[in-house]
């Protein structure tokens, strides 16, 4: 339903939907008929981002998101103002320095003298060599920028004619340039390509140089820190006479273990020799021992001298950490002692001790070995103390050396990491610039004309725009267009819609006697309204007709309804109750006035057969209660009801709030006229609410539907 209403709204404005697009088409045609042809040239750049043949062996494959980001960065670099400015400079230099410019001189350029052109040419060449940017805010270059803009060589004008994109998912970036000249398009594309590659290479090398310098400084710092730690360790070892703590500790631990083993063996030897001597002594009596000591005093002195030499050699042997050079000397002294013991035994060939000679020799040998073992024991113990002291002295050196070695190890790793990065960076330096132009732009054919497309688009866009505007107006429209809307928004029934007459006639006889289609429809609607009002009024005879606002056709419908009832053989009285605006009185000019009847100056009108009796008013600003008392008014109304079948009162509109209210006490039924197309706004809503709350209110008449 809403769609049909919207289509109806479009139909009502069909002329706008035709005229506006037609005007737009005409204007567009006038604008585009001299539109020059367009040429497009394309230049392709290989980036090497996805080309594995240009990458170093072992380089991991990049993720798709990373690849897209790299391509987006390159595209943005192409469209940088700094890059496009270089193209602008070359274009204006070409046009200023040649007799065949790409574009006709602009009005600004035509005003230049030859000297000013030479000066501008030199300025643009300097800007190009310095790779400077052109900005309109620069006071010194404002004139040059104005010249560029007049020739449409400025960055904004060029950027609108340049398209840069990645070719599908390939390794190539395509630069498309559009221009009105067949040679200008490839010139822009190729120049932008070259300037981009040059700018990118310059920027990349500058960044790499800065990065390389930074890495080298960092590498130098790390190497100096590592060497400083090594020097500190070297000085500490020299100062504390430290060679190799691990080896030294290992040697000392070995010597301590060896000496402890020898001490245990020597202890067992001492215990054994002591036991042997005690056992031999127990076999001699006191007399034997005295004789033995008396006879052996001289030989014992010789043996003691040899034992002293053996002790000295053994001490040297132990202190030398059991050096094998002393072993032969020890064995030689042992042999001498053995000979001395044998010599002593020869003295007992014929004496009381001859039987115990072997025990004496054994005791002497045991005593020599015991004495030697005791000497060895003290030497071994002393050497163990020295070795333990030496080991304890290595412990703090070990801690300091470990700290220095750990610091050197950390510094070495940092140095090697930076060195690896620096070498890798320098290795990739030659392969970093991978951009190259693989397809130069060449002059192409003219593109298909867009004139018809632009004209068609202008028509479609203007038509859609008009439809959109009408739709917005339709959505925001608060007016009432049909009976259903009026009933829904007021909550009161609509008795009948009355269409407007195209000829706007007020001749009742012409309306009711005419056989035209419009008149016939109008008469049928009046008949339907008459029927609805008769059912709504019931036994009541006095019907008041009002409207929300003035000029809604209330008086016209009151006159027509009076005539409609007279055509139904009813005795009809029409009273003009609108004192402020007596339209019915002015139109019909009746002889009887309401003021005279209420004042008793005129008799009540007499009904006419097949006619309508009209009571007018004098059009004063008076109100009904001011003309007569309530009882008089009621008496006159009752008398008129006795004379007529239907009494219609044309009251004032509801905007004159008190005037129509004066008729409510004597009214049997009340009907209101609402003109189609009028909105229901905050001004109208209170009047509608008042009408719908009245008991006499029977419904609405939608006029001019």
TrEMBL record:
Protein name as annotated: CobQ/CobB/MinD/ParA nucleotide binding domain-containing protein
Pfam family, one: CbiA
N-terminal signal peptide: none
InterPro entries: Bact_polysacc_biosynth/exp, CobQ/CobB/MinD/ParA_Nub-bd_dom, P-loop_NTPase
PANTHER family the record matches: CAPSULAR EXOPOLYSACCHARIDE FAMILY, TYROSINE-PROTEIN KINASE
SUPFAM superfamilies reported in the protein's UniProt record: P-loop containing nucleoside triphosphate hydrolases (SSF52540)
Organism superkingdom: Bacteria
Every CobQ/CobB/MinD/ParA nucleotide binding domain range: 543-626
Species the sequence originates in: Filimonas zeae
Swiss-Prot/TrEMBL keywords: Membrane, Transmembrane, Transmembrane helix
Entry's transmembrane regions: 15-32, 453-475
